[in-house]
Design goal:
- It is a single chain.
- The protein is mainly α.
- It has four helices and no strands.
């Protein structure tokens, strides 16, 4: 999970969502009260579940570690195959807009000629 969260694409997308969430809460008092209540509920459920899950977590720890190692190797390979994962969302959007604009311009030129 940490390795996925540290991918530039994922990290920048999370930052964008977090910023939008905070901005929405700041701009709309009714939304803020609903979000605050939801956050408190999630926090309470998480705290209550943590102690109940601990025995199961301890039992499954070796299996989780093996799966984590396997997933880590797969993510490394995916990162090599898809360099896009190392770019922030803003750059991907900018590159995409530029590519589309270029293709549209090429199509216009082809139609004109």
């Amino acid at each position: 999970v940490n390795q996925v969260a540290n991918l530039t694409l994922v990290s920048s997308a999370c930052d964008m969502v977090s910023t939008a969430y905070a901005s929405t809460k700041d701009s709309h008092p009714y939304v803020r009260s609903v979000c605050d209540a939801a956050e408190k509920g999630v926090k309470s459920v998480t705290e209550a579940t943590a102690s109940c899950v601990q025995p199961v977590r301890t039992t499954l720890e070796p299996h989780v570690a093996a799966a984590s190692e396997y997933a880590s190797k797969g993510l490394d390979k995916l990162g090599e195959t898809l360099p896009l994962l190392q770019k922030p969302v803003e750059q991907i959007l900018s590159d995409t807009k530029e590519l589309v604009s270029s293709r549209v311009a090429d199509a216009k030129d082809a139609v004109r000629s």
